[in-house]
Amino acid sequence: MPTLLGIDIGTSAAKAVLIDPEGTVLGVSGCEYPIEQPLPGWAEQDPEAWWQAACAAVRGALVAGADEVAAIGLSGQMHGTVLVSPAGQPVRPAIIWADQRSQAQVERATRQLGLRRLGRLAGNRLAVGFTAASLLWLLENEPEALAASDKVILPKDYIRLRLTGQVATEVSDASATLLFDVARRRWSRELVTAWKVPHWLLPEALESTAVAGELTREAAAELGLRAGIPVVAGAADQACQAVGSGLIDPGLASCTIGTGGQLLTALTAPTPDPELRLHTFCHAIPGRWYSMGAILSAGLSLSWFREHFAPGASFEELAAEAAGIPAGCEGLLFLPYLAGERTPHFDPEARGAFVGLTLRHGRAHAVRAIMEGVCFALRDALEAMREFGPGPAQIVAAGGGGTSHPWQEILAAVLGLPVTVALGPERTAVGAAVLAGLGTGLYRDPVEARARTVRYAPPVEPRPDDMARYQELYHAYRGLYPALKGSFHALDL
Fold this sequence. Notes:
By secondary structure, this protein is α/β, with parallel strands linked by helices.
């Protein structure tokens, strides 16, 4: 029986899954790596650490069936900037999505073009941590690194380079660089020229299901596989997650509560949010796009709290404590802006805040307020989607906190929508494996692939009483950022 291998290069770990054609996970493994912060606000990683972690994850997932792997698919964290030399070696550490150093460049580049023109050219606004922003910083601060580079690629593209020896990217990751014409699915000559980005740095941008090369003998030896296995182009992690969760048409939205948080729905045409609060990127499915709201500190907010105020407590213990607190935390609200915010504010100087603290509130209240605050932030994205379209009718929780109790119940009540789960682990890496099957003809089309590989749990319905309470609190929540914005910016001086 043929099997499919999916490799996901995440922010904190590489994951690998081995699936059969029906989507059953036969093997899964992961290996972590650190984020380096050489200066405040910087976030970098060593591409070699990705490769070593990917090799370990693949070897761990291939408990059985290594000889039957028919194709390999890839997924990876978005927006990262990986400069490689003509020999394919990293020129410097990769600048990843969490990096904040390029704020001045973002402000100047945005003023230069204006939001309306950016929307027309790229369908998105520029943000710190995006590839274009990092390249603009490098042009000003490390021109020698660019001069030594042959191409700029994204994190999962570096793994594909190590697998196949071929340099390329693909449309879903390219569209998130802010140097890409999302509607036409090609590099934007106008953006590249306006921002003076060296055009020769940009690699070929393939469709996500295109076969991009074959596994070399050297890579095969490190992975424990045979040489010659087709490797498809793959996709950005959120596009792969959408494939793994069955989001190929409008009507469903996926919600991921990982380090950051994302609310995503598929589009049949590139229709950017007029105010550019949402991202509009190319889907991994040819002829499809997606709209996405992104928040920066979703699960990260709870991790921060546990590290500093509940050391030794497990996330399960904290969630159990939060489940005993009534909806609304008896008047306690939390703004999850610990690392600034994207949707809908696009403000790197936004800050986190507990509002409404009283002597009655304890640790369990704080934990639940964090969970609710993250869900309120995701509702901001949902409301933006509803302003220029019907919005989704159901939510698919796709990994991270969103698949656990009480996150699902809170999410359902805050969004006012039923929440289901795509069954099976590591849906992002599974989506990468499914792309491998699509690219090599194991599946006729995305509809067949979804029918064979995606199954859902019964949905969690929103509780009417909780939904009514959260509707009241959401209005209060929405008033907090405008009221505190001036203070946030003053504190950043």
